[in-house]
Amino acid sequence: MRFQRNLQRWLASREPSADQQRLIERHLLRPGDAPRIGILLPARAEDATALADTLESLEQSHYSPTVHLLAGPGLAIPASPLAIRVIPWDGADPLPALNVAAASSEDEWLMVARAGDRFTPSGLQLVAVELTQAPDCRAVFADEFHRGGEGFVGAAFRPGFNLDLLLSFPGAHARHWLFRRDLLTGLGGFDADYGEAAELDVILRLVEQGGLVGLGHVDEVLLNTEAPRLVDSPAERRAIQRHLDARGYQADVLSERPGRYRIDYHHGDTPLVSVLVVADKPLAALRQCVESVLEKTEYPCFELLLVDPGEAADGTREADRDEWLGGIAGLGSDQVRVVAAGEGPSFSAAVNQGAREARGDYLVLLTGDGIVLHGHWLQQLVNHAQRPEVGIVGGKVLTSDGRVQQAGLVLGLNGPVGRPFVGEPLETPGYMQRLEVDQDYSAVSTSCLVIRRSLFDQLGGLDTALTDERRDADLCLRARDAGFLTVWTPYCVVVTEAGLRQESPDDWSDETRERMEREGALMYQRWLPLLASDPAYNRNLSLLGSGFDFDHGRDRSWDPLPIAGLPRVLAYPADHFGCGHYRVIQPLKALQAEGLAQGRISDRYHTIVELERFQPDVLLLQRQIGDENIKGIAEAGEFSRAFKVFELDDYLPNLPLKSVHRATMPKDIVKSLRRALALSDRLVVSTEALAESFSDLHPMIRVVHNTLPVPWWGHLQSQRGVGPRPRVGWGGGASHTGDLELIFDVVRDLADRVDWVFFGMCPPKLRPYVKEYHEGVSIEAYPAKLASLNLDLALAPLEQNLFNECKSNLRLLEYGACAYPVVCSDVRCFRGDLPVTRVKNRFKEWMDAIQAHLADPEASARQGLALREAVYRDWMLAGENLQRWRRGWLPD
C-alpha cells in the first residue's frame, strides 16, 4: 500500500502546475501547432463500464484527443464533452475496423487503447510536447502503471527503444504505441493475421522499413492499464518469426518461460573464437576457469589464450601459478596458449596484448576466476555477436552462492557507471523480467563478453587509463558510437568467486580515491550526455542504490519544459525558513509564475549526472559554506555550464554574541567564504552594506533587496484598538536575544500601561512583563499570524553592530504589510524613506517615541497605513522588483 501511495503522490507531482500549464499553452502547444492525436478505442456492449472509465480519464486530461470509438452491437454511446467519432463495428475482429478508422482519420498520430485503460491527466499532453520537439519521429511509446488481479498498481518504467527487449518480451513493450498515421496506413494498417500482436507487427515493420531511427520513448506515465499476462502467444511468435524471416535469418523463436522468447539465429557458420583470460587470479581459481572452459564448451571452434600479466591483480606473484602457466606453454598446444603481457601491466594492457596474439574472428573476455556453467555458454554469446548490427554481447555473472554479480551496466548509477541487481538471487526475474530475457544494454562487463575482433581493433582496444566498470562502459560506448548494439543475454552464465560488496567511497584509500576521481572525470568528459540519459534505463528510476528502483524523491520533479530562452534555475536554499524563502524559494516561484524562468528547489547536491539531466542555466547557492558544499560547487563548475550565483543575506563573519546561530558557524568562516566565492561567478547580497563589507571577496557583487511575496503579504487584514489597553509588541525569528534585551527597561516600565505581545521569541528576562507570548509558526503561516496579533504599535529594536548594519529592512516591510505603525532603532538597515519612527538605542528616546504614538492613536494608525502604502508600492515581489531578481541571477 505504501508503494501505491508513493506512486500516486509521484504521479500528482508530475502534473504540470497552473504556471507550467500556461507555459505549455503559450510556447509549446499553441492552437494549430499541437500534434493531433487520435485514440482508437474498440468497445462492446459488455465493456460499457470500462469504456466509461476510459472516457472519464480522457475528460480529465490536459490534452483532448479525438476518440475513434469502434462501437460494437448494443453499445450505448455515452454522453461526453470529448470529440468522439463513432465507427460501427460488428464486435468480431477489431483490426479491420481499426484500419477503416485510421484511413479516414484526420489525426497525425494514432494509438490503440482498450476499454478500461485510464489515461493520466498529463500523459498525453507531455507526449504531445515531446512530439513537437521530434519532427522525425515515426512512432513513440511511454511508460505505464500496471494493475493486476488484486488491483495492485506497479510502475512499468520502460527503457528507450530496445529491439532485443521488444523481441524477447513483447507483451510488456509493444502496447500503447503512438504511430504516425501516414506511416501506419502506408504499411497497410494492422495486419489481421497477427491478431493481438498486430501492434508488435507494425513496430517490427517500421524497423524493417527505417531501422531504429525515429522510434521514440517518453519517460512519462501515459496510462494505467492491465498488466501483461505471462503466457505464450502464437500471434507474437508469428510476428517475430515473420520479422526475422524478412531480415534474412533462418531463426527459431523459442520460449522456455511463458511470454518471454529466446531467438536462435542459426547463423550456419562457426567462426573461430578466441577466449582471452588474464591470468591475474590465484592458481586454484585459474585452474577451475580453464578446466570449465575446456571441459564444458560445446562450441566447436575456439582457442583459449591465457595472458600472463607477470603478477596477480593484488600486485603479488605466485610461484605455483607461474609454474603452471609455464607448463601449459610447454605443451605447444594450438588451442590453449600462454601469452606474455610483460611485467606488471594493467588488465587493459594485458587484454590488448592478448588480442594482438589472438587468431579468432571474435574475442571473448572472461574473468580469470570465472567458471562456465553450461556447455552452450559460448554459443549463446556468438548467437548475437554474429548479427551484423551487434558489436558486443555480455553474459550473466553469478557468485558461487548463486547471486547476481554482473548483469549489464547502467550508465550514471552511483557515479559514471554502476552494476544493477547486485546480490539478487539467481531465480529473481528482476525489474520487468529484465534478468530473464535478452536485451540491449548500453554497457556490459568484461567479466564475460564477446566482441568482434575487427571492431576491437577499430576501437583501439581497452583504454589503459580506465579500470573496472568505467573501462568496460568506455569500450561499449565507443562501439555504440561506431554504430553497433551491445546485447546482454541471461543464457550465458558464468560463476565467479568475486564477492558482492561494492566498496563504499568511505572505505577508499587515498590512492583509490584519487584513481576513482581521475577516472570519473575522464568518463564525464567523454560521455556525460549519455551517462545522464542511458537509453537502456529510465529517468524515473533512481541513479542511487542497486538500480531499477522507483525514484519518487521530492526534489526530482518532472524535467523542465523544452522552451528556448526560458532559463532553468537549480536552487540550493540554506533553509526552508526565513531567508531561504525570501531570498531563493519565493523569488524563484514568482519568476516561474510569470513565465520568466523554470526552476527546481533541492535539499541536496545533485550528482554530476543529475546536473546533466537537468541542465541548469543557473546554480543558485545560498550560504553553501560547508566542506561538502564547496566540494559540490567545485564538481558542478568542472562539468556543468551553469552560471553559479552565491547568495548571502547576513554578515556571517560577525554574528552577534547572543545569536543562537553563532555556535553553528564554522570558526574559519571567512576562509570558507573565500573558497566558495572563488568557485562562484557572482555574489548576490541583500543590502549595499553587505556589498561593501564583502567587496574584497568577489569582483562581481549585485545587490537585490528583499521584497515581500504577494500571495503571502498582499492581502492581510489587521485591526487597531481591539484591546482594553494598547497592544504593543514584536514579531520575528529566534535569533534576536540581544536586540530584544535592549528594550528590557522599556518593557518593564510600560507593563502597567500597555499589553506587551511577543511572537516568535521572548528573552526570559522580559517574560514577566509580557501579556501574550505566541510561539513561532511555519514560514507559510507567519504572515497571517503576524497580522492576527492586531498590534497598535510594532517595535523593531536592533543592536548597533556590523552584523545589524548589514541587515535588510525586512522587519519594517513585514510590519508595513500589516499596516502596523513602527518604532525602530536608528541603524543603517532601517534608514530610508519608509514612514517609521527611528530612535537611538537610548531608554529615553524609546520611551518618548512609544508614548507619542500612544498619545495620538489616530496619527499612529495613519502612519501604519502610510507604511503599508509604501510597502505595497515599492517593496512587493512583482513587476520591476521581480525583474531585478531575474537580472541578479542570470548572466549578463
Structure, explained:
The chain has 892 residues and is α/β, with parallel strands linked by helices. The protein has 31 helices and 35 strands. The strands form six sheets. Strands 12, 13, 14, 15, 16, 17, 18, 21, 22 and 23 form a ten-stranded mixed β-sheet that branches.
Write the layout of secondary structure elements.
Elements: H1 2-14, H2 18-28, E1 37-43, H3 48-59, E2 66-71, E3 83-88, H4 95-104, E4 109-112, E5 118-119, H5 123-132, E6 139-147, E7 153-156, H6 163-168, H7 170-173, E8 178-180, H8 181-186, H9 198-210, E9 215-226, H10 234-246, E10 252-257, E11 260-264, E12 273-278, H11 283-296, E13 302-308, H12 319-331, E14 336-340, H13 347-357, E15 362-366, E16 370-372, H14 377-385, E17 390-399, E18 404-406, E19 410-411, E20 417-418, E21 439-440, E22 448-452, H15 453-459, H16 468-481, E23 485-496, H17 510-531, E24 568-572, H18 578-593, E25 598-601, H19 608-614, E26 618-622, H20 627-639, E27 643-648, H21 669-678, E28 682-685, H22 688-693, E29 701-703, H23 710-713, E30 727-731, H24 737-741, H25 744-749, E31 755-759, E32 772-774, H26 782-788, E33 793-796, H27 802-805, H28 810-817, E34 822-825, E35 837-839, H29 843-855, H30 857-874, H31 879-889
Parallel strand pairs: 1-2, 1-4, 2-3, 6-9, 12-13, 12-15, 13-14, 17-23, 24-25, 24-26, 26-27, 27-28, 28-29, 30-31, 30-33, 31-32, 33-34, 34-35
Antiparallel strand pairs: 4-8, 5-9, 6-7, 6-8, 10-11, 15-22, 16-23, 17-18, 17-22, 19-20, 21-23
Domain Glycosyltransferase 2-like: 283-459
GO molecular function: transferase activity
Pfam family, one: Glycos_transf_2
